[in-house]
Design goal:
Elements lengths: L5 E4 L3 E5 L5 E6 L2 E4 L4 E4 L3 H18 L6 E4 L4 E5 L2 E2 L2 E8 L2 H7 L6 E11 L8 E2 L1 H6 L5 H23 L3 E15 L2 E7 L7 E5 L9 H4 L5 H11 L19
Antiparallel strand pairs: 1-2, 2-3, 3-7, 4-5, 6-7, 8-12, 9-10, 9-12, 10-11, 12-13, 12-14
Helix pairs in contact: 1-6
Length: about 250
């Protein structure tokens, strides 16, 4: 068997050369990181859960006509995706005050925002992903004004879908992060949603108890990170209710 060519390795995923031109294989690792890898651990089974949850979300986005890089899941840890030119921005949509927004503006966590807020952060670990404005983005050529408009439109549509999806299973979508990329099809280019959408990239709170069901359990040393991710997967119908996953990782609905 030929060794696959590794294209890129990030904190939580590895990209390999795909089986066809214009495709990549996205592999989900069990690494849990926070504060740009200043905090790091291995959580057995996390990558499996994130792969399946992200697959579930991206399949729905594709069905709704929201363009993404996702093609199909290959196995428990890997997805086949389209190769895109990643725009070096993290796009954060906030519905409820939490995390850095609460610290910056002195707003109590859990406060419902007057409207959803979109923020941009420059993807650079060495600089701790600084927050940037549209002026920075266009001045440094990371994206042009039309691309920014397209990114914001995608972010709003994804927010609308995710808010309804999680509300239906008793979860409050506090905020989330997406990345976008340029998908080239001949001479035509369009902006698509890329990376992943999972409890690693969303803040998810139980509506009744406000229990955190996301990576804040790791960031804040709350414990129970894998169990929280399993809870999200169960509510979405990905993980069987009657299964109690062991250390070998969760058993997921095929």
């Amino acid at each position: 068997m030929n060794r696959r060519r590794r294209i890129y390795e990030g904190k939580a995923k590895i990209l390999y050369e795909g089986p066809e031109p214009g495709t990549l294989i996205q592999h989900f690792k069990d690494d849990a990181t926070a504060f740009n890898k200043k905090k790091h651990d291995i959580i057995d089974g996390k990558g499996v859960l994130n792969n399946r949850i992200s697959e579930f979300v991206f399949n729905h986005l594709n069905e709704m006509g929201i363009p993404t890089h996702f093609l199909r899941r290959l196995n428990m840890r890997e997805q086949l995706i389209r190769e895109v030119e990643i725009i070096p921005l993290e796009v954060v949509v906030r519905n409820v005050a939490a995390g850095s927004l609460s610290k910056r503006l002195g707003i109590e966590e859990g406060t419902q925002l007057p409207r959803s807020i979109i923020e941009f952060y420059y993807k650079n670990d060495e600089l701790d992903d600084p927050m940037v404005t549209e002026e920075h983005i266009t001045a440094f050529g990371w994206a042009n004004p039309q691309e920014i408009d397209d990114i914001m439109a995608l972010a709003i549509r994804v927010n609308d879908f995710l808010s309804g999806l999680f509300l239906g299973v008793g979860i409050r979508l506090v905020d989330f992060k997406i990345e976008c990329g340029r998908l080239w099809e001949g001479d035509m280019m369009r902006i698509v949603v890329a990376d992943e959408i999972s409890p690693d990239s969303c803040r998810l709170w139980d509506i009744e108890t406000e229990e955190k069901l996301d990576k804040d359990r790791f960031r804040r040393d709350l414990g129970g990170m894998l169990e929280a991710y399993q809870d999200v997967a169960r509510r979405l119908g990905i993980l069987n209710d009657n299964e109690r996953p062991l250390n070998g990782g969760p058993r997921l609905v095929q």
